[in-house]
Amino acid sequence: MPELTVSELIPEVDSPEEKLLRRLCSIIEEYLDHKQVSDVVRAYHKGADAHSGQFRKSGEAYICHPLSVAITLADMRMDTRGIIAAILHDIIEDTPVSKEDLAKEFSPEIADLVDGVTKLSKLDHKSHAEAQAENVRKMLLAMANDLRVIIVKLADRLHNMQTLGAMPAKKKRRIAKETQEIYVPLANRLSMNSIRHQLEELCLEALHPLRYRIIDKAVKKSRGNRREIVSTIENAIQNRLNQAGLIFNVAGREKNIPSIYYKMKRQKISFSNVFDVYAFRIYCDHVDDCYRILGCIHNLFNPVPGKFKDYIALPKANGYQSLHTVLIGPFGVPIEVQIRTHEMHRLSESGIAAHWLYKSNDPSGECVQAKANEWLRDLLEIQKTAGDSLEFIDNLKVDLFPQEVFVFTPQGNIIKLPRGASIVDFAYAVHTDIGNACISARMDNKLIPLQTKLENGMTVEVITTDWARPNPLWLNFAITAKARSSIRNYLKNFKQKDAISLGQRLLEKELKIMNINLDDIKDDLIMELLQVIKLHSMDELLEEIGLGNRMPILIAKQLSQDDIHAAVKLEETDSTNSPLVIKGTEGMVITLAKCCRPIPGDHIVGFFNPGKGIVIHHHECRNSTETKKRESSRLDVEWSKEVSGEFSAELRMEVLNQLGTLATIASTISSLESNIENVSIIGQDDKVSTNIFTLTVKDRVHLAKIIRKLKRLFIILKITRIKA
Fold first, then answer.
1. Inter-CA distances, 134 with 168, 236, 611, Å
2. Is 93 a catalytic residue?
């Protein structure tokens, strides 16, 4: 039986959806076989039936939207499964058809693609922002299995932006802002510049319609004035390259409206001062020719210093390759020129989509694919450690707006990082374990601190040690998503372990008063208690106690099965007889208050701070006096006899305001094995200066020695310790 033609598959009908289907089939006929075309038509009929009776805000049948998305992908030469997924991409979300139905009728691969694009539904989110963040997170995780998910989603978002006109103004701005913040940089990150440029233009038109119209009008008006200049430059370039015997194509390129607008905004200039509205692209067949053309162009016009970028030798993170240069042309007009091979241009426009759109074995296509997969692996690592969807989106946005620097490892490998990245970012880019264990770095045989900002061409060797661990202060200068999420994850787990350990000590302390051993309590009783208080494990309960979210005395009472005798005994027992012993090494769940800075040897008191653990105050601190009014949060504590480490103390000194005073004080403090952490001047005149010194001490005895020695100095008029 002869195969049906496309005309026979689609009868002549005047409806908009049938016209779109005919257009789609006429495109895919050029590169797909007949069986694949009929599969696409079958998918259309499935989608049309499922969406029957549904209409868009514009009034057209809903199926017109997925057909338009499919046409965008067909223009890019997407494969059959990608086209079918585009036609069916809203079917799970908006119709009774399930993922399982699609898997049976088409294939599991198509069902997974459609499900990856589908929004999450029936979830209780606190806000629209959180819901959208969760949807983006789901989509990006689906990308890890199949990158076509994001290609379909970008085409879907492009058509939604093209049809924003029917939307209310508020919703139009919200969709445009979301597109600008997430989908435009995503398209850029995946090197899909054709879609990116269209989305940028549509976003600007939706967010700033008046500005868009004014610039558009100015560009059209200037075309006539600049045509002669452009023609002169183009002819000069062609003549020079022809003389060199090179094979090439030159294309004048008009700068798009968003590029003009953001340049005007960034440089605070008017439209008349934007000279590079027109730029030129030169295409050739081989990489060697790119550099030959560059030499000819630089001989023809003077290059602008510092404006040359070699993205062929050092491609961008998204795989983009080209030579960029800016020249001073005739009439003193700056000319932007991009030089690339035809293959580089194809990859620049299609990006990661080229993996499916063109069945070539070109290694540059594999390079883009590899870079996208590497980025996705980093994203997966980040999402595993992110606390929630909004934190994941914040990390993603940081990663989507890089201005790169290139740094070398000692072995000569190139690491690409965003501009402003620090040694910590570099360490985590090499490996997470190296980031977690770094203490400093070496560059040109000189030690440099972790907060040092990286610059192009640096060769950096990270110094690590087994005892090192991430510091919360690193978050002040780490800027890459991978580094920040790894630091947060480590600190979160570290705090969790500390909280569990502290919670166990607190609970054992209260149970000891009742003459109960925690190990002797039956597992059934513990499980029953966990069910009542809606926790999942004993570790979770101990963590809650350690963080101050639950009082250990109440948990101890519940574990004693509310025995009246034990409860009376507990009330009669003075809990100060067995205070919690503080060693100073408990980690982040026990905090020494900065208002009074208690040190070993001081009489101290502890208070529960829900979510943070226990805060230790000096007993004379005014803040502790206020907190004592809430007796339920008070905890009796004392310093351990084996306490170790260094602790901060503050001294207020009135000193003679003369040359060398600070040096004398610093020398005296240093001689007693103490370091000055901070000095602040709170009052000063010609004769006397009042300063606050923060220094490290081992205990109260050590501090007393320092004060005695300082009092012997003639320059010290008065010295007191700050305890509140």
1. 24, 54, 25
2. yes
